[in-house]
Design brief:
This protein has 136 residues and is an alpha/beta fold. The protein is built from two helices and eight strands.
Length: 136
C-alpha cells in the first residue's frame, strides 16, 4: 500500500450558521474568489471544494442558536487562506469594504500580523474571523 500524498493536509472544515442564506452568500462569494466551486448542495447545507479540500456550511438547529459564536471562547479562532498575491489581498479588501464586511485591525492593515505578514482580516456573518494571507 502506498502512502496517501494528502496525508496530514486539511481535508475539510464544517461551519454551522444561524442564518444559512447570509452565510451561504458570504462564503459562496469568498470561496469563489479563492478558486473553490460548489461541491455539494442539499436542504440546509452546501459545500465548496478546491483540489482535495472543501468547506461545508450547514444551518444550525434552532435548539443551538441561543449562544452566539465568539472566537475568543474555546474552539475555533479563525480560518486563514493563502492569497495568490498582495494584489489579490488588496482587491478582496476593496470588495469586502464594498460589501460592508468589517475589516479587522484596520489601523494596522495590511500589516496587522507583523511587518512581513501582508494580509486582510475580516469576519463572516457569524463573526468567525477569516484571514487572507499574501505569499512572502
Amino acid at each position: 500500500m502506498t502512502p496517501d500524498s494528502n496525508a496530514g493536509l486539511l481535508h475539510h472544515v464544517e461551519l454551522y450558521a444561524s442564518d444559512f442564506a447570509a452565510s451561504s452568500s458570504f462564503w459562496g462569494w469568498l470561496l469563489g474568489e479563492l478558486g473553490y466551486s460548489v461541491y455539494q448542495d442539499w436542504d440546509d447545507g452546501r459545500s465548496w471544494k478546491r483540489g482535495e479540500t472543501y468547506v461545508v456550511l450547514v444551518q444550525a438547529d434552532e435548539e443551538y442558536l441561543d449562544v452566539p459564536y465568539h472566537r475568543c471562547r474555546p474552539g475555533l479562532n479563525h480560518l486563514a487562506f493563502h492569497a495568490e498575491s498582495r494584489e489579490q489581498v488588496d482587491d478582496l479588501t476593496d470588495e469586502l469594504r464594498a460589501r460592508g464586511v468589517p475589516i479587522l485591525y484596520e489601523y494596522d492593515h495590511p500589516f496587522a500580523g507583523g511587518d512581513d505578514h501582508y494580509a486582510v482580516y475580516f469576519e463572516d456573518p457569524e463573526r468567525v474571523k477569516v484571514e487572507l494571507v499574501a505569499p512572502e
